[in-house]
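Give me structure tokens for this 132-residue protein.
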Amino acid sequence: MLFECRVAKEIWEMIPTSFYVSASTSDNLIENINYLLIGAKQDKREALNFFAGWNIWKMRNNILFHHKRDHILRVIHAAIRENQCWNKAIDIESSQKQSTGAQRNQMENIHESNKSKAYGMRMSLLLVTVSN
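Here you go.
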């Protein structure tokens, strides 16, 4: 269904990724998903394929359970939109991790600076005490 039906093949042809369904595409779902995983690891833009597959699956369910048929372009646009949302969420998360790391470094620097100042003050007190 995800790769073999005529409508799914049309969707895969129109999705702007390097993946396309052809006669050489495996009939084995696991092999196809592994192929998509390898592509997504090499180029994050290839993750769009998973959103395409998800939206093909949702389209199938709408036909079977709700007797509602979506236009192919609507399915493709939904996949692209979901992929963009996913990428934004990842970008936000990574920027938050970076800012948290920067804040942690800043706090550590402040802590180290305060330790140095406290050490300097103790040494000054010691010298004053010893000289008296």
